[in-house]
Amino acid sequence: MPPDRAAPRLLADIGGTNVRFALAPSDGPGEGPAFAHLRALKVADFPDLAGAARAYLDAVRPPTPPASGCIAVAGPVGGNLLTLTNHAGWRIDLQATAAALGLTRLTAVNDFVANAHAVAGLGGDDLLTLRRGAPDGAAPRLVMGPGTGLGVALLVPCPEAPGGWHAVATEGGHASIAAQDDAEWALLADLRRRFGHVSAERVASGPGLVNLYGACCRRAGRAPAEEMHAAAISAAAVDGSDPQARAALDAFFAFLGNAAGSLALATGARGGVWLMGGILPRLAEALTASAFFERFTAKGRFADWLGQVPVHLVTHPAPALVGLAGAEDDGAADD
């Protein structure tokens, strides 16, 4: 049964910490806003997606209830049952959730596939170009960002795809990270004792910043300040009140640059790198002053190659919802 074209679509961007909801026209955004009634709720406050969606709909009370929906999930997408990589509490049954919400259709994509789909439509106040470089318009584009995890997706040229680009989900954030100096070796050795395998996500995400802060404190022979979460650590780093917080944030940016350069090199992303997520827009000045670009290009004989890759910072508060809103409600979002 096709969805009611007069009813809105329910959109949800589900991360490890927050779920952001919005409503979008069922036939695409057209000339108006991509979506309306943006709200963010805490994942931990609800037993499942259906409960969070009901709370959202009760709060915004749309004149016409949504007939279909599309969700972006921070984890692998395939089949009817989905789980979040960084939140074990939610197990999403697409068919059961659709039935519970009275939707005729509920589709899902990886969250960074949705973010990647948004890239072409972002500009102006939604985007800050950190380095212009010399983009190759026919080359892949890398989209990545630290939040509760480290999301990574790739946009590849595809004439048959809507807009000429196809978004590819990856789990690049779980690739191993390498040290570039003795200080980083010591930090990774500390984290290996705790985790065994140290991925890029273990050091270039919100929890990764907390991991680095703990490791920096142990190296300095002091106990970490109690209950220091990522936002508090970054604030203490920027205002200079905690030297280990400063060291942790410096290492965070360096590891992020290392990972971004390696992924750009591995994927041939001469079209550019788009950084996003909940952390970086608040730290744009600290990012540009950090070792990010030094580590991004520190790839030996391919330093000049990477020096031509543009780097952008997405400042839009909900790019995944922009990407979901632009997907036609005909099954194209299932891949």
Automatic annotation (TrEMBL):
Which BP terms from GO are recorded? glycolytic process
Q: Where in the cell is it found?
A: Cytoplasm
- In terms of superkingdom, the source organism counts as Bacteria
The protein's GO terms of the molecular function aspect are: ATP binding; D-glucose binding; glucokinase activity
Indicate which residues the UniProt annotation says bind ATP.
A12, D13, I14, G15, G16, T17
**What is the E.C. number?**
2.7.1.2
Pfam families xrefs: Glucokinase (PF02685)
Q: Which UniProt keywords apply?
A: ATP-binding, Cytoplasm, Glycolysis, Kinase, Nucleotide-binding, Transferase
> What is stated as this protein's family in its record?
Belongs to the bacterial glucokinase family.
User: Gene encoding it?
Assistant: glk
Tell me the CDD domains matching this sequence: ASKHA_NBD_GLK (cd24008)
Q: Which GO terms describe its cellular component?
A: cytosol
Q: Does the keyword Kinase apply?
A: yes
UniProt organism field: Roseospirillum parvum
Name assigned to this protein: Glucokinase
Q: Is the keyword Nucleotide-binding in the record?
A: yes
Q: What is the lineage of its organism?
A: Bacteria, Pseudomonadati, Pseudomonadota, Alphaproteobacteria, Rhodospirillales
